Amino acid sequence: MSQLKSMQDADPPGWMPRLAAHGGPRFLQIADALQAAVADGSLRAGDRLPPQRLLAAQLDVDLTTVTRAYDEARRRSLLEGRGARGTYVAAPKVELNPVLDLSMNTPPPPEGVDFDDLLKQGLSQVLMRADNELLMTYHLGGGSDADRKAGARWLAPMFGQLDAAQVLVCPGAQAAIAALILALTEPGDVILAEPASYPGLRAAATQFGRRIVAVGADRHGMLPELLEEACRAHQPALVYLNPTLQNPTAVTMPARRRQELAAIAQRCDVRIVEDDPYWLLAEDPPPPIATFGPGNVYYISTLSKCLTPGLRVAFVLVRDPRERERFLAALRSFALMAAPLTAALATQWILDGSAEALLAGVCKEARLRHAMARDILAGRYSGAGDGLHVWLELPAYWNASQLAHAAGSEGIAVTPAEAFATDGASVNAIRISLGSIKDRGRLRAGLQRLSQLLARRPEPFSAAVV
């Protein structure tokens, strides 16, 4: 009691944040004010912060609010605790050769969305409503009834109302692709894909002893006449397509092309795996190929590119009940189930509207980042204005691997075209991912450095001698 009285009688702290009535969560306002004070020098490394109770009293807020603010500031590496001596401004973190990662396709952090709070609230609801024993035990795979209903709701923008029994829950799109290859093909079978395609397809096909054959594409995607020729020549077991904001080219296949490819696949009796992770990020995407050929198209939608990769949840639409059983048997051979806890969290977010709000924030942030890339890269920009990546064709004096190496030497990670080549040949291009750098200012700096690198010719190689 005497300790509390001495704190109340103490002089007000030298640093005092101002809280706005409509400025968002108060704990974030306090953390943001701390960050601003460190940035402008009002607070310096080693300065002692007011005790939490004293600051709460001075600001007329709950102690919990200040505790959350200090926790958030620690997460940002702004503060450090020194036991009984109190809380102090931390020394700046020294990063040796920090890498600006433009190589990984992850959703950008949406502005104004408190992801930590979203995670805590979602998990709290899951633990309050679910049987905790069921969250920590084995499941047969395919998801609970609630998870499948959530999957049907997630797919409703693409397909309208769906029978939830047709929707299967998987531990990510890569697992879904691998299970479909195992279920629908035999060793030695051919899988057709575009010349530049998702590297995970090649990895799974190679591991399982299947062969990928590239089918030519234009600015609208795979060419129908070449698909028909390849079907006659190779009798493929599957056709793999990523038709919306294609990875890596960012091409969105128009509706007519989708319809033509679906018709050819039906005529040639070949199944299509439609891997469509970016459909919900696109501004006005055409209907999925699975709407034109529902009987022989297997549709995959992952949450990794729209919400967060950590959920490890993807939904697969398989309409035929016998094919669903084959798919689940294949999936169980290497991934028994999606983790029940993260699947339940995904379901909670979808059903309570949190997923929709997070998706809207990701879309808005992605479009802001594309506008930035368009301004900085000028005539070289070839993105679609939405999605997570840009496909950048290079000037003749650079080749893709050479540029990737030079960029890496300057602390920038990009992905060269050969990483996506399905037939061993690749165009002279790189993929730039816009979401993996959290801070927009650091992303701008990375894009500017990359633009400067593109504008100059490569230096002759010379080995160092020591």
Automatic annotation (TrEMBL):
<dbReference type="InterPro" id="IPR036388">
    <property type="entry name" value="WH-like_DNA-bd_sf"/>
</dbReference>
<keyword id="KW-0805">Transcription regulation</keyword>
<keyword id="KW-0808">Transferase</keyword>
<feature type="domain" description="HTH gntR-type">
    <location>
        <begin position="24"/>
        <end position="92"/>
    </location>
</feature>
<dbReference type="Pfam" id="PF00392">
    <property type="entry name" value="GntR"/>
</dbReference>
<dbReference type="Pfam" id="PF00155">
    <property type="entry name" value="Aminotran_1_2"/>
</dbReference>
<dbReference type="InterPro" id="IPR015421">
    <property type="entry name" value="PyrdxlP-dep_Trfase_major"/>
</dbReference>
<keyword id="KW-0804">Transcription</keyword>
<dbReference type="InterPro" id="IPR051446">
    <property type="entry name" value="HTH_trans_reg/aminotransferase"/>
</dbReference>
<dbReference type="InterPro" id="IPR004839">
    <property type="entry name" value="Aminotransferase_I/II_large"/>
</dbReference>
<dbReference type="InterPro" id="IPR000524">
    <property type="entry name" value="Tscrpt_reg_HTH_GntR"/>
</dbReference>
<dbReference type="InterPro" id="IPR015424">
    <property type="entry name" value="PyrdxlP-dep_Trfase"/>
</dbReference>
<keyword id="KW-0238">DNA-binding</keyword>
<dbReference type="GO" id="GO:0008483">
    <property type="term" value="F:transaminase activity"/>
</dbReference>
<comment type="similarity">
    <text>In the C-terminal section; belongs to the class-I pyridoxal-phosphate-dependent aminotransferase family.</text>
</comment>
<protein>
    <submittedName>
        <fullName>PLP-dependent aminotransferase family protein</fullName>
    </submittedName>
</protein>
<keyword id="KW-0663">Pyridoxal phosphate</keyword>
<keyword id="KW-0032">Aminotransferase</keyword>
<dbReference type="InterPro" id="IPR036390">
    <property type="entry name" value="WH_DNA-bd_sf"/>
</dbReference>
